[in-house]
Amino acid sequence: MGTVDRADRFYGEQVLDRLNSRMAEFVARQEMFFLATADGQGECDSTFRAGPPGFLQVLDAETLAYPEYRGNGVMASLGNIRENPHVGILMIDFSQDRIGLHVNGRAQLVTDEAMRRRHPGLPVDPVPGRRPQMWVEVEVEEAYIHCSKHIPKLVKAPLRQGVDGAQTAAGDDGQAWGTDDVRRKGGDYFEAAARRRGLAQR
Fold it and tell me: Where in this chain does the record put each Pyridoxamine 5'-phosphate oxidase N-terminal domain (predicted)?
């Protein structure tokens, strides 16, 4: 494709094996990221993580960590990490700088208790009663820019106080953290279960 020289130049100039100070500052203010994992056979999965600024912790220039909470019970990402520690994290700032940061590295699972013993300054979750089930600690192997060329500009909705005192986006009825209520989790939005039931009844 004729891009070898460009790729070599990019790797030589832009790809670091640790976070520099600007990258660390960028990570510390992110409220979401996309996570890529693969199992032992290389079957891939991608998912989304979100939280208050700082939920993705910069432990040092070579280490990131984020909390894992109860989800849908599938635990695809954690299961993949147990089989294959290689992960990719993509953070995109859609509203302020319209720029992204890739971090590729090796992950390991750490219990909340062990993580807090090693890092006593970790923040306590702002949602009352919610505690991480696990932490994912990522050893940084590559950190590099995702250019702004095709990143859309998005405007954050103003925040308001929810009924439980937590801040939520205007028009939102509040995050349903930890709920098992099918409707509040999104129900069968894509009608996958309904279609399976229909096929089973034929």
Answer: 22-146
